[in-house]
Amino acid sequence: MPDLLLELRSEEIPARMQRKAAGDLKKFVTDALVEAGLTYEGAREYWTPRRLTLDIRGLNARSADIREERRGPRTDANEKAIEGFLRGAGLSSIGEAHVHNDPKKGDFYVAHIVKAGRPAEEIIAGVLPGIVRDFPWPKSMRWGAASARPGALRWIRPLQSILCTFGGETEETRVVPFEVDGIVAGNVTYGHRFHAPDAIVVRRFDDYVAQLEKAKVVLDAERRKQIIAADAANLAFAGGLELVEDEGLLDEVSGLVEWPQVLMGTFDADFLAIPSEIIRLTIKTNQKCFVTRKPGEETLSNHFVLVSNIEAKDGGREIVRGNGKVVRARLSDARHFWLRDQGDLPDLETLKASAEKFGLDLARPLDQRMAKLDALDVTFHAKLGTQGERVARIRTLAAELAKATGADAARVDRAVVLSKADLRTEAVGEFPELQGVMGRKYALLQGEDPAVAEAIEDHYKPQGPSDRVPSGKVALTVALADKLDTLSGFWRIDEKPTGSKDPYALRRAALGVIRILLERNIHLPLLPVVQDPDLLSFFHDRLKVYLRDMGARHDLIDAVLTAAADDLLLVARRVEALTAFISSEEGQNLLAGTKRAANILAAEEKKGTVVETAVAPELLHLDAEKALHAALVPAAEAAAAAVAREDFRAAMTALSALRDPVDRFFTDVLVNDEDPAIRANRLALLSAIRAATETVADFSKISG
User: Fold this and answer.
1) Where does residue 524 fall: left (phi above 0), alpha (psi -120 to 50 degrees), or beta otherwise?
2) Rounded to the nearest 5°, which phi and psi values hold at 552?
3) Based on CB atoms within 10 Å of each CB, which residue in 272, 575, 606, 700 is the most buried?
């Protein structure tokens, strides 16, 4: 079966757009071909800084014929009805129609219509121009003389050529003929713009890849990544160093080069006095270079790894020199930020009111930055006030939370007051991703308690499911206060996540609260804190997702999670204990008996039967019902006591004592006795079973 090769080559495609654009191209083309009646065996997309490529294997040579029957009027219909049927069916005379019989409605005309399939090349040529024209680039441009025309082609950067060939492995491939704004599809592409600018004639995908490789273009982005990663690691190793891995940077750099050449540069060792985080971000952000360090050490070396797109004749010496010059200039700027942040602000007199409000010491640089943040009335959110007002709210909330977490109240207060101060530092102004990190460094420089400094950095954590949870009590208290203030505030102004939209990352904040509470074993009744049942429900939804991701069954979560449950740690522990219990033979048997009791009670309650809550011992006549009643009281008491001390496994063990009495009861006892008093008493026994098990969970919600 034939294969299709498509390449759209442009002047440049930004690295951040390449992967998605290639995926879009694959989807749009394959969807269009399938909709037109073609099938294919497989498709794969590729991308480089200058081209999007699509390789479709095993494509049908033509679409299948389509046969359909179109029902017409009865054979005795008037002439106008028959003429309309002939026009709609494309028939020249009624003699071309068939007559079918319906026993109820009589004879009627039917047109047997055959729509012949089309050659794949015709279909491809028909769909590709529209896909190219309507391609969904986030930003696009027009160029050249044609750009003045209405409806001129727009592309991310000037589209330079289109390659489109079609054919089987054993036959000569053919160019699929189409054009877009004067760019005619052909069988020609071009390699590396400097090393191999001449035209390359292509037949099919395999020789396309091989010829590009000879022309200094590595088509596969994953292979470019592997080349860069391996060469960078080897180059660092040869210098007695190790590469500081950065997957995001590796992705980006592989999208900047077609022929990766890895080189090593240096900068003055004096710059190593700057924090490693600033050095790494300066070199990464400005020069797209990797940093290195001595094996086993945290601090960086003064060697960096760069990736060039040119195989230089001088071995890369000029490229390294040029990059080193820029790196040194940028590090000089970074050192300037670092040192300025440790000095006094020029307008201390204007900051006294803010300093007094927050108990700040204006002799300390970080305190000055917090006072400046407040004095400038920097907005947090238009409806939620300034950053200073937010810090004041978090301060009040954290003081209450410290009682639950056991954190030192004075340290918590100091950490909250300084938690946002680094937003006014020049280092964070240049690199916003260093929020918290720089606050910690500046806090330690001015002699703050290590627990306070730790909290300043960690109060943003966790920022995702793979991020670590704060460990220190002061840090986790401030982190909880920060996230709960955010959630409460946005709920108060009715800015809640909707569908896939969550612009303020409120789902992430809620997950952060849940992870802190569960992973650090903190009991915190949330409703008194958030004071909003809807927000508590939002926490429940996030908790369900979290517990399911941890392997918990959804029905077991539902069995223990009530609308009023606001101690999420207790909910998680109940689910854990219930999971273990239901997995045992005792648990399965008790579940079956309890569900049977619940079903009988539900049927009676639906009829309007009033079920007594108290069992009358004098009405117990059979040994099985007496044994069940004797077991129920101690089991219920033991389970309730275990729940009170939060020993849910012990509660389950207490309930397991009911397994045999419940089984025997349903074997030996008829609940619907002829005597109404005995029947009512036995229903009360069933109610007692339900009440005993509900101390731990609602067994009726458990499947199985």
Assistant:
1) beta
2) -75, 145
3) 575
**Which pTM was predicted?**
0.78
**Residue limits of CATH 1.10.3210 in the chain:** 348-520
Q: Cβ-count burial of 245 within 10 angstroms (0-12 exposed, 13-18 middle, 19+ buried)?
A: exposed
Which regions of the chain carry the CATH code 1.10.730? 584-701
Q: If one looks up domain 584-701 in CATH, what number appears?
A: 1.10.730
Residues 6+ apart with CB under 8 A from 429: 337
Please answer whether residues 652 and 586 qualify as being in contact, where contact means their C-beta atoms are separated by less than 8 angstroms.
no
CATH number of 348-520: 1.10.3210
In the predicted model, is pLDDT for residue 403 greater than 80?
yes
Q: What residues contact 153, with CB distance under 8 A and at least 6 apart?
A: 132, 133, 142, 146, 159, 180, 181, 183
Helix axes 409-418, 450-458, angle to 10 degrees: 50
pLDDT digits (tens, 9 = 90+) for 122-142: 999 999 999 999 999 999 999
Instruction: Give CA–CA dist 180/101, Å, rounded.
Output: 52
Is the pLDDT assigned to residue 336 strictly greater than 80? Answer: yes
Number of H helices, E strands in the chain: 26, 18
For 13, the enclosing helix (H) or strand (E) is none
3-state secondary structure at position 389: helix
